[in-house]
Structure formats: structure tokens, C-alpha cells
Amino acid sequence: MTSPGQRRIDEIGDESRRRILDAAEELFAERGFDRTSFVDIAKRSGISRGSIPWHFKNKNGLVMAVVERAVERIWPASRYQSVPSLTEVFSETTRLLNAGNSALVFMILVEALNDRGVVREQYKEFLGRRREGMEILLRLRRPADADPAKAVDQERAAAVALNGALLGIHLQALVDPDSVDMPSALITLASMFDKNIADVWRS
């Protein structure tokens, strides 16, 4: 049985870890991974610099912890088993755009494009989760006369296209928010998707 004293130590450790991750996430989104130091993170978090490697060993460990937490928050593993509607998918994109850490998603993308290691694998998992949800959405709309031998590949291709469109709208809104009407863009995309959904299963 854990003693009250040990529980308190664990709580303090968890709180320190959370504050470090929060500060690192903010700074990575603002400055990028390479231009953020442990000193910067310590100042922002109010946690001593020496505590950072104690929790995360090194900067790579901290980067991965930030990426893992961001991916899980944006698209939790539990969503693999969910059946999202198109509205839910678009609402998720809007929520992501409005989140304080939205720029971090594309900072991670830049890092993934220049990295062959774990950051890329984490970003692939994030994209895979979104694609999986869209494939489920399409599968539920599959017409009875669709060719089962082709349907899976057709739905995968459509999910990739829809995922790319959503992320593209998001990126444009981040870069030039004054010129991008996010709700209108999503409504237009939804309308185009609904009007042409039957084409997904045509050869």
C-alpha cells in the first residue's frame, strides 16, 4: 500500500511533468524544436532546469513526450473504435484549429518530414487515426451494389483525399486566417463530398 507521503511525492512529480510538457508544447509551437532550450522551458514552466532531464532524460525524450501527448489529445486511440459522422470529422478540425496548440500539429509535420525516426512514426499514427475514422464513415455509406473486392481500396483513397482536404484547409487558416472563412470552407467541402459520394465506388 502506498503511503500518504509517497502519494504526495508522486503527485508533485506528475504536476512537474505536466508543467514541463505544457511549457515545452507552447515553446515548440512558437519557436520550433531546435530553437527551444531547457533553460527556456524551465523559465516558462517555473520548474528547475535540472528537473527536465530527470523526467525526460534528454531533449529527444521531451520532444517525443510532447508529440505523443499532442497526438493522443487531438485524435485519441479510442476513436479507432468510434463511428464519426462527417459533421464530427469537420468539428474535430475546427476544434483543432481553435486550440491553443494548433500550430504544433504542423510543427510536428515539419519535424516528421525531416526525421526518419519516432517523430515521423507518431505523425503517421496521427494521420492513420484520422484516416481510419474516415474509412469507417465511408464504409457505413457503402452502397449495396458496390464491388467488395474494390471497395476497401476505393474507401482508402477517398479517406486520404478527404483527410488531405481537411488538413489543407486547416493549414491555410493558420497561415492566412484573415483570408480563410473556415466554416464556409468546411460547408463547401461537405457539400461536395455529399453530392459526389457515389463516385467513391465507381471504377
TrEMBL record:
All residue ranges annotated as the HTH tetR-type domain in the record: 14-74
Pfam family, one: TetR_N
Keyword terms: DNA-binding, Transcription, Transcription regulation
Gene3D superfamilies named among the record's database cross-references: Tetracycline Repressor, domain 2
Keyword set includes Transcription regulation: yes
Record keyword Transcription present: yes
Residue ranges of the TM segments: none
DNA-binding positions: 37-56
GO molecular function: DNA-binding transcription factor activity; transcription cis-regulatory region binding
InterPro entries: Homeodomain-like_sf, HTH-type_TetR-like_transc_reg, HTH_TetR, Tet_transcr_reg_TetR-rel_C_sf
Full protein name: TetR/AcrR family acrAB operon transcriptional repressor
Organism: Saccharothrix tamanrassetensis
